[in-house]
């Protein structure tokens, strides 16, 4: 395929703006998938994606399209069937469908580096959303050609002209540059395909390959490709998703990962249509896959460069590593499942490189893993995939963030301690200073909800900056710029924002600087012993409220013991909340019939002494389901 006939592009949009539906119509119009095989969200291959109606994983697909030919009389256009059956030239359109939620922005960033253009899809019923701004800036910084498109124009709630005005101000473009489509009916989609061919530049050749001894320039023997994603197959090993930058690759070629220096042979090369489809070769400008046959998960990595072993080219810049924002510990319910959990996490990391994990131990929960996530939804999706795809029963600890802690009486006062887990957070009296990450947040909302939003911002310790009208003033929307602790963003902020704005507000955020934090560790004690899995780092101002809630909840689900059990919340160096769980009462004299009453009195006295001894020395064995209920919020 000639370079000038290839177009590589992605679709970026806020969640639920019709991205997957538009991709369905493209696949249908280009003949990539037969109508009888079509289904909704065809590129969302995971059951979890289809169930929730969101895209979690990027998905590449290759479409072949012949632009429509004009009628002989010039009265109109005939949209010829694709796949080369029309009279014009055949173009290869490589689409990478991307997630819309902010927690999966690392997926989006990797996809954008593999393409030359991007469709900015905006719901004409909702207008520009906060997450739209984040992904747009990402694409603009990479120098991609942006095609603004309004979706859902068939909806009776569509505000096409108003939203076009927003887009004109956002992109500083002309109104006629903005396209309108309906993914549901297919209206405007053929015209969009034409515009992709016109506006998105063809892949340009990479830097000329270096010369070798004797002045001979490598031409056909060179090969260099960027790994933008991969997955694992039990039978075929690691399958890398690549964008070819230089040369050509064929089945059987001897290749090299430049980062790990691992050598291997291509067992198969092919394209996504959207299923994997083997081809003879992949050449410069194309997007496809290579089956490596490697069954070790630590060899391949996103952003790595693949080149030939005999004539290697210099590595490409690659990607920045994803930095975890939220941490949580994952333990198997059954200790015997530890090895299976470790294998599952390794396999899962192959399909989600933003996810990280390391082994840890807990006295109450045994061996498990400390895992890093890009957000709360990311955490929820990963744990749900572990349960569904690997059939594992898990205990997930309360999520936390990273703190930098300076200790009192430290011989090296300039050094801080990084704390990832609440039960490693130092006691209040030992802490000199704590720093925590803050986030820069943008919220776009109808103006009538500003009052309620301001109230929850105050409750979550936010610092509100400028407020400005957004888009057409008649639409009555405003954009808030603010900063707040990441700890507070995790404390149910998303749900509260959606509730107070009736679902109309949208939010995007990025990690900002570290600031001094007024926090402490909350411990939950059962029979005088702290339970590490229940520990949390909380704001000192909310210490009493958080302790009361946690103790009340645990006292309602912990089974009674043979002795009186105290459940306490400890923070700020003292007990600030307490509940007493009464003991089981057992009639130990029921087998006695007749005789003097003193016989029963002696036996009851003996039992009382035994319970007193148990209270002093006894330990409470907390059942596994109690941990589950505390962590799952039941």
Automatic annotation (TrEMBL):
Record field: transmembrane: none
Location(s) in or outside the cell: Cell membrane
GO biological process terms held by the UniProt record: positive regulation of translation
Top EC class of this enzyme: hydrolase
CDD domains on file: lepA_C
Catalytic reactions of this protein: GTP + H2O = GDP + phosphate + H(+)
Chief place where the protein resides: membrane
Organism superkingdom: Bacteria
Pfam families tied to this protein: EFG_C (PF00679), GTP_EFTU (PF00009), GTP_EFTU_D2 (PF03144), LepA_C (PF06421)
Keyword Transcription attributed: no
InterPro entries named among the record's database cross-references: EF-4, EFG_III/V, EFG_V-like, EFTu-like_2, G_TR_CS, LepA_C_sf, LepA_CTD, LepA_IV
Amino-acid positions noted as binding GTP in the UniProt annotation, renumbered to this chain: 16-21, 151-154
One annotated GO molecular function: GTPase activity
This protein's UniProt keywords: Cell membrane, Elongation factor, GTP-binding, Hydrolase, Membrane, Nucleotide-binding, Protein biosynthesis
GO cellular component, one term: plasma membrane
Enzyme Commission number: 3.6.5.n1
Domain called Tr-type G: residue spans: 4-206
Membrane topology of this protein: Peripheral membrane protein
Family of this protein: Belongs to the TRAFAC class translation factor GTPase superfamily. Classic translation factor GTPase family. LepA subfamily.
HAMAP family: LepA
NCBIfam families linked to this entry: lepA, small_GTP
Function description: Required for accurate and efficient protein synthesis under certain stress conditions. May act as a fidelity factor of the translation reaction, by catalyzing a one-codon backward translocation of tRNAs on improperly translocated ribosomes. Back-translocation proceeds from a post-translocation (POST) complex to a pre-translocation (PRE) complex, thus giving elongation factor G a second chance to translocate the tRNAs correctly. Binds to ribosomes in a GTP-dependent manner.
Name of the featured protein: Elongation factor 4
Gene name in the database record: lepA
């Amino acid at each position: 395929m000639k370079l000038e006939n290839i177009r590589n592009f992605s679709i970026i949009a806020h969640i639920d703006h019709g991205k997957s539906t538009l991709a369905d119509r493209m696949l249908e119009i280009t003949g990539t998938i037969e109508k009888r095989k079509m289904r909704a969200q065809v590129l969302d291959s995971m059951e979890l994606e289809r169930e929730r109606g969101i895209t979690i994983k990027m998905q590449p697909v290759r479409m072949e399209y012949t632009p429509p030919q004009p009628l002989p009389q010039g009265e109109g256009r005939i949209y010829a069937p694709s796949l080369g059956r029309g009279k014009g030239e055949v173009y290869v359109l490589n689409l990478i469908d991307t997630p819309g939620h902010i927690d999966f922005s690392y997926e989006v960033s990797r996809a954008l580096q593999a393409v030359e253009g991007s469709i900015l899809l905006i719901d004409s019923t909702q207008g520009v959303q906060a997450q739209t701004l984040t992904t747009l800036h990402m694409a603009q910084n990479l120098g991609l050609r942006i095609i603004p498109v309004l979706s859902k124009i068939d909806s009776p709630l569509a505000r096409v002209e108003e939203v076009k005005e927003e887009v004109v101000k956002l992109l500083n473009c002309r109104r006629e540059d903005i396209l309108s489509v309906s993914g549901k009916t297919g209206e405007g989609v053929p015209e969009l395909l034409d515009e992709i061919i016109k506006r998105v530049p063809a892949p340009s050749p990479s830097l000329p390959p270096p010369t070798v001894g004797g002045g001979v320039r490598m031409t056909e023997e060179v090969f260099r490709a960027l790994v933008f994603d991969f997955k694992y197959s039990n039978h075929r090993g690691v399958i890398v998703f690549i964008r070819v930058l230089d040369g050509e690759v064929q089945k059987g070629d001897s290749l090299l990962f430049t980062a790990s220096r691992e050598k291997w042979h291509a067992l198969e090369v092919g394209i996504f249509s959207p299923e994997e489809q083997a081809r003879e070769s992949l050449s410069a400008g194309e997007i496809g896959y290579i089956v490596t046959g490697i069954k070790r998960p630590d060899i391949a990595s996103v952003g790595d460069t693949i080149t030939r072993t005999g004539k290697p080219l210099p590595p490409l810049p690659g990607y920045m590593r994803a930095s975890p924002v939220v941490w949580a510990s994952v333990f198997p319910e059954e200790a015997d499942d530890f090895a299976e959990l470790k294998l599952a996490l390794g396999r899962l990391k192959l399909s989600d490189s933003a996810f990280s994990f390391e082994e840890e131990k807990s006295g109450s929960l045994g061996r498990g893993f400390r895992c890093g996530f890009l957000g709360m939804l990311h955490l929820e999706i990963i744990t749900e995939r572990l349960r569904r795809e690997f059939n594992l029963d898990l205990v997930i600890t309360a999520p936390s963030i990273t703190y930098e802690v300076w200790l009192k009486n430290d011989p090296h006062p300039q050094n801080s301690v990084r704390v990832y887990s609440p039960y490693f957070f130092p006691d209040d009296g030992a802490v000199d200073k704590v720093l925590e990450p803050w986030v820069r947040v943008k919220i776009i909302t109808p103006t009538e909800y500003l009052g309620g939003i301001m109230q929850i911002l105050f409750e979550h310790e936010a610092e509100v900056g400028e407020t400005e009208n957004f888009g057409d003033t008649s639409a009555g929307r405003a954009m808030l710029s603010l900063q707040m602790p990441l700890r507070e963003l995790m404390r149910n902020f998303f749900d509260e924002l959606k509730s107070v704005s009736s679902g109309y507000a949208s939010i995007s955020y990025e990690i900002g600087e570290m600031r001094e934090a007024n926090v402490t560790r909350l411990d939950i004690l059962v029979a005088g012993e702290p339970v590490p899995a229940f520990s949390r780092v909380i704001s000192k101002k909310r210490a009493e409220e958080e302790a009361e809630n946690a103790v009340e909840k645990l006292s309602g689900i912990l089974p009674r013991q043979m002795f009186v059990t105290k459940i306490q919340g400890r923070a700020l160096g003292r007990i600030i909340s307490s509940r007493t769980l009464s003991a089981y009462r057992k009639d130990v004299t029921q087998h006695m019939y007749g005789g003097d009453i003193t016989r029963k009195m002696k036996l009851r006295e003996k039992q009382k002494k035994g319970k007193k001894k148990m209270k002093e020395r006894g330990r409470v064995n907390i059942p596994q389901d109690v941990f589950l209920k505390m962590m799952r919020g039941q």
